[in-house]
Specification:
Two copies of one chain form a homodimer.
Chain A (H helix, E strand, L loop, with lengths): L11 H7 L8 H7 L9 H4 L12 H10 L6 E3 H4 L2 H4 L12 E3 L4 H13 L4 E4 L16 E4 L6 E5 L4 E5 L4 H10 L16 H7 L6 H4 L2 H4 E7 L5 E4 L12 H5 L8 E8 L6 E9 L2 H14 L4 E8 H11 L15 E9 L2 H18 L4 E5 L2 H19 L3 E8 L7 H10 L7 E7 L4 E8 L4 H7 L2 H8 L24 H14 L13
Parallel strand pairs in A: 2-4, 3-4
Antiparallel strand pairs in A: 1-2, 5-6, 6-9, 7-8, 7-9, 10-12, 10-13, 11-12, 11-15, 14-16, 15-16
Helix pairs in contact in A: 13-15, 14-16
Bound molecules: flavin-adenine dinucleotide (FAD) (2 copies).
Chain lengths: 523, 523
């Protein structure tokens, strides 16, 4: 290891670029990057699906909504406001045709809207920060967009028990910052934190960077308030760590992608913020080395390990090319290392943590599993080390179209899927690149293929081939991004007919008219 | 602190008595303690409830079951085998009248049984280790007992990913021991571990002693296979940490107490077994001191804290009186301390852990919050320190009848509930004692009142008074034990009518004939 310095050495100019959390915070910013003709084709045109038997929005409906939501800016229409930012997804791969966006400020307003929509058979698409990656957060046809962005109040934070209660429209980063001031930590962290909302996180059961340490949202959520399709408010907003009074209804909502109810309030158990933090970025020659590092980290860093992420040379390349993020660990000849690993630790005693991290790094160095490394303990430098990993998703967008896969696989097969994909696409002229990165600790690979624009020939090479590989390995075809619009028809690769039928029964029970986020999640 | 020795000093003779995990491992053992006339009255007699419109077991049904389950000992009948052990609960407070116990060995057998029962409208009571404390695991009338004890195979343990896959009838302690041999730990631990089954733990969403560290079972469960009332097998037995392919069906089963399906297989994420463990038993003068200790432990022990439990002098008293477990921390005058705290730590570096624990104890000592303490790091001595805390539930049984409450309350109100109960019952001649103990870290109080036999007058003083107190504090009337038969009618103190109605809808969807564990959980 040539540079195991305690700080990352970067030219001052790139510091701002590298600052963590600089993901575009609004969809507007994002659209500014493309041009207006760069909008994707309408979903209803590109994919052959039939519109459900819902009412079409009328002037009378609109008048009613204006009465329900009298405060200014709560009812946006296509004519007056231009709704592209609400109709197009973050990836710019799907586009709906909604004519109206409703922005309720209270649970009562959400309830009144849904009661009315239910009575009048109007379809609704709940929307949080619109950072979802499976086309779940935008309409397919003319569904009414129910934007949760105005429900962004923090209700309470109990510093002793670590309990957060807030509205569902709160943006993740704001909550994380607020908790940090109180010595607490949000158990969830992800690249889209500057825009995504807690309601969206819960609705997608987002995994993110620290699942390894704090577990899934099914474990961290303490309570929820949600509104069912007919307007009924289910208040199970417990603040207690334990509550076994019957079926755990909030769990139904976790990962249901707006198809079973609209989440209005949430409570979470938040762990103490670690007193000491450290991040190491390490360069490895092979994925086998990455896995070996992981096993050692699980053992040697154990209770202080809070993230273990990897990205490959191609991922580093796209971040450098489009966002100017260059690796502090380039080889002497200026090329990328085949693999980078980010190890994050958080503990209560800086001296103990340091000893553990150093012992771990020394052990790894002596085995030759690590070629190069750098480490940081200062917040700003930690952010800088995270930058490439966090912004790969964003960088890929600049290539044009992204064929996006988010799979769970047994650890030993994790990177094999990337290599097999490269082989399969080798020589195909339309392909810009194939990159692999993700959450090693969770067995979760993000496999992305880009091309200047969508090409059916590439899609056909990838699917169903990739789904078959994942199914054969008993993996999951959607590890953390969910199903949304894009994966609904391939769920069968991960779920049995009986399980799908039970999903359908639950949907029919909770939303008998099917007005909540139709065409999504449930086959 | 007078004795902060590194080991607990106990006469050799009491060592065996104190060994952890000596809870009776079969109901038979338990019954041997009482006499046969000591059986509780039949539930159907004591409580005025009407039998559901189910078929009564006929010879023809029995013949069919014998054909379905040909292996010997799989079909037990009241006539031939005496079914008291299956009809009476662990607390000996409820008694059913089942005529037959079925013991399937495979998922296919469970499925065939339920399909048949569904077709013939025969009610079924799924039973695990029968250690449940709310009367959920035994029949109310003549439901068929479906005992899962033969489905006890460990299917696989992946040492690297920490994934356990096993059948639902596996006994918790056996699994914990098996995992320990592989360097892993079961994230769940509780006093009934010698008898309770993982399927029962999942069905009750058991909390236990280490929830503080590893979170709830909603987070640790990775997958499940369960059989619905009509015999349909739902296989969502994923071994992946992340799988967002649609609604998370396994979560429905967690805490559903045998009313939505019979769990046949499970997979769990198991953390590494800590390389170093320590337990400190501390004596405090007030509950305020206990809370102060907890706050300090959360901060100073942080990531290595794995349990924080308390019990009061009355709890220690009952364990001494009936089980001969005397406290190593008696005061000089031989009396119990008002409160005892058990702090358990587990980490990866013995030296670091020790330093943290010592610093914590020293700080507590210097503030005068701790009056006396003792500590252990050796497994057998750790077990000994746990003994009283783990066996309070068992000891209380010897008093006669136990009025058992398991509530969540805001931390500051936790012990106030015990004091208020003592005040309320003061002078009532039938009351033997009022004890309080539980999981401080989870805000979970076990409040128990005993009397030689059940007395309606005592029950009337306690209920609904206590439910009202808990509801007023926005607590939970059942923190971890569940609803079962005993708390079904008071769920309204913790759940809104809308939430109860949604529970009913889910039940009707998944079990339209209501054959699975009727009279339980769902009002
Ligand atoms: C740069 C980037 C990085 C990402 N990294 C990760 C990652 O590491 N891990 C991960 O799991 N995901 C990741 N994601 C995807 C992830 O799903 C989202 O970022 C996030 O969880 C969605 O939140 P949102 O508020 O943007 O929801 P949206 O995108 O608005 O909606 C997502 C789904 O939830 C529904 N929904 C939203 N709010 C509500 C509500 N209040 N009630 C009911 N339904 C609602 C929508 O209908 C939709 O189906 C990433 C996305 C981006 C763009
Ligand atoms: C000494 C003692 C200490 C305890 N400590 C704790 C504690 O610390 N924390 C805690 O949470 N609980 C505790 N409990 C209660 C706890 O609920 C049980 O010990 C345990 O979780 C139940 O497991 P079991 O196999 O005995 O289930 P049972 O008692 O047999 O059944 C419990 C419920 O689950 C259902 N069930 C069981 N198996 C299945 C299956 N395979 N499929 C579907 N339904 C099923 C039954 O129908 C019943 O409704 C304790 C109990 C005792 C006696």
């Amino acid at each position: 290891m040539r540079r195991l310095s305690r700080a990352i050495h970067l030219p001052a100019a790139s510091a701002k670029l590298l600052a963590r959390g600089t993901t575009p915070t609004t969809t507007t910013t994002l659209f500014a990057r493309g041009n207006s003709s760069g909008l994707p084709p309408q979903t209803a045109e590109r994919y052959a699906i039939a519109r459900g038997k819902f009412q079409v929005l009328s002037q009378q409906h609109l008048d009613h909504f204006r009465r329900l939501l009298p405060s200014s800016g709560s009812v946006l229409t296509a004519e007056e406001d231009g709704l592209d930012g609400y109709n197009v997804d973050w990836l710019k791969t799907v586009r709906g045709q909604s004519r109206v966006v409703l922005k309720p400020s209270t649970t009562e307003e959400v309830s009144a809207i849904l009661r009315y929509c239910s009575e009048h058979s109007l379809a609704v698409c709940p929307q949080g920060g619109n950072t979802g990656l499976v086309g779940g957060s935008v309409p397919v046809f003319d569904e009414i967009v129910l934007s949760m962005s105005r429900m962004d109040k923090i209700i309470s934070v109990d510093e002793i028990s670590g309990t957060l209660v807030c509205e569902a429209g709160c943006i993740l980063e704001r909550i994380s910052d607020h908790l940090a001031e109180k010595g607490l930590r949000m158990p969830l962290d992800l690249g889209a934190k500057g825009s995504c909302q807690l309601g969206g996180n819960i609705s997608t059961n987002a995994g993110g960077l620290r699942l390894l340490r704090y577990g899934s949202l099914h474990g961290s959520i303490l309570g929820a308030e949600f509104v069912m399709a007919d307007g009924t408010v289910i208040d199970v907003l417990s603040e207690m760590r334990k509550d076994n009074t019957g079926y755990d209804l909030k769990q139904l909502i976790v990962g249901s992608e707006g198809t079973l109810g609209v989440v209005t309030k949430l409570s979470f158990a938040c762990p103490p913020k670690p007193a000491s933090e450290a991040v190491a970025l390490l360069a490895c020659d092979s994925f086998e080395d990455v896995l070996c590092l992981f096993r050692e980290a699980r053992q040697g860093l154990a209770e202080i390990l809070s993230a273990f992420e990897f990205y490959d040379a191609a991922s580093a390349g796209v971040a450098r090319e489009h966002l100017g993020l260059s690796s502090p660990l380039l080889r002497d000849d200026g090329t990328e290392s085949p693999f980078y690993v980010l190890v994050e630790t958080g503990g209560s005693n800086a001296r103990h943590d340091e000893e553990k991290v150093h012992a771990f790094l020394e052990r790894m160095l002596s085995t030759g599993r690590v070629q190069n490394g750098t480490m940081a303990t200062e917040p700003s430098k930690i952010k800088a080390l995270w930058a490439t990993r966090e912004r790969i998703t964003e960088a890929l967008l600049h290539d044009g179209y992204v064929y996006k896969y988010d799979v769970s696989l047994p650890l030993r097969d994790l990177y094999g899927a990337v290599e097999a994909t490269r082989e399969r696409l080798a020589g195909h002229p339309g392909v810009t690149r194939v990159v692999g990165f993700g959450h090693v600790g969770d067995g979760n690979l993000h496999l992305n293929i880009t091309s200047p624009q969508y090409e059916e020939a590439i899609a056909d090479l990838l699917e169903p081939w990739l789904w078959e590989q994942v199914a054969a390995a008993r993996g999951s075809i959607s590890a953390e991004h969910g199903v949304g619009f894009k994966k609904r028809d391939v769920l069968g690769y991960s779920k049995s007919p009986e399980a799908l039928s039970l999903m359908r029964q639950l949907k029919d029970t909770m939303d008998p008219k099917g007005i909540l986020n139709p065409y999504k999640t449930v086959p």
